[in-house]
């Protein structure tokens, strides 16, 4: 029994060492920049660069020059909404980026796992509505800063969406939140 306890403790210590500390700078590959990027994925970037680096999406949808691509990664889910300027550009640009990866954080260490009270200290949040994902009801909060937060019933962040500062989290032609009930 003691061996199991020590093994679990060692595992927890090792896992905690991989998470950035509050006083450490978030590295560029894990930095969430509202209105701009998540890690090295930037809004307005050519969407094919993600397919080149991550491979074919695990799921998605497309219509009228718009698409949603979804990758299931080892650290969570990555979703992009992409749009093509039909007749002008022959490629799609990333318009929204959504992630459920807990390793990604803002410069002030906010992200998956953050509490609503902490998010409110940094951002002016507007409740957009509720949706259900995998049988779990979540609430979507948006900001004018270009970042939106998905929170569970315990007001813990479970997802982050980056969008242009001039738009909203729900500005996609093909909905990322299929069953969103707006306020």
What does this structure look like?
With 183 residues, this protein is α+β, with helices and mostly antiparallel strands. It has a single domain (28-182), classed as CAP (Pathogenesis-related Protein p14a, 3-Layer(aba) Sandwich), CATH 3.40.33. The chain has helices at 2-18, 48-54, 116-122; strands at residues 32-33, 37-38, 41-42, 59-63, 66-73, 76-84, 92-99, 126-133, 136-142, 147-151, 157-163, 181-182. The strands form two sheets. Strands 4-5-6-7-11-10-9-8-12 form a nine-stranded antiparallel β-sheet, with no helix packed on it. A three-stranded antiparallel β-sheet has the order 1-2-3, with no helix packed on it. A hairpin with a 2-residue loop joins strand 8 and strand 9 (136-142). It starts with a helix and ends with a strand.
List keywords for this structure.
single chain; alpha+beta; globular; three-stranded antiparallel beta sheet; 183 residues; nine-stranded antiparallel beta sheet; Pathogenesis-related Protein p14a
Q: What's the arrangement of strands in the largest beta sheet?
A: 4-5-6-7-11-10-9-8-12
* SSE run: HEEEHEEEEHEEEEE
Bin the strand percentage: 35-45%
**Count of individual beta strands:** 12
- Total of helices: 3
CATH hierarchy: architecture: 3-Layer(aba) Sandwich
Question: How many strands, which pairing sense, and closed or not: the largest β-sheet?
Answer: 9 strands, antiparallel
- CATH top level label: Alpha Beta
Question: What is the CATH homologous superfamily assignment?
Answer: CAP
Helix content: 10-25%
């Amino acid at each position: 029994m003691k061996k199991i306890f020590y093994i679990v403790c060692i595992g927890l210590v090792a896992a905690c060492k991989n998470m950035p500390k509050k006083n450490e700078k978030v590295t560029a590959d894990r930095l969430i920049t509202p209105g701009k990027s998540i890690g090295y994925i930037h809004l307005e970037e050519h969407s094919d660069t993600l397919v080149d680096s991550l491979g074919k999406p695990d799921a998605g949808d497309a219509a009228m020059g718009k698409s949603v691509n979804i990758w299931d990664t080892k650290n969570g889910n990555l979703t992009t909404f992409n749009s093509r300027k039909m007749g002008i550009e022959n490629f799609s640009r990333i318009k929204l980026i959504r992630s459920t990866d807990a390793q990604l954080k803002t410069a002030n260490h906010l992200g998956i796992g953050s509490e609503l009270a902490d998010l409110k200290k940094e951002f002016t949040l507007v409740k957009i509505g509720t949706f259900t994902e995998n049988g779990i009801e979540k609430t979507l909060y948006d900001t004018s800063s270009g970042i939106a937060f998905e929170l569970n019933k315990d007001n813990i962040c479970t997802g982050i969406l980056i969008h242009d500062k001039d738009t909203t989290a729900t500005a996609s032609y093909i909905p990322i939140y299929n069953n969103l009930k707006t306020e």
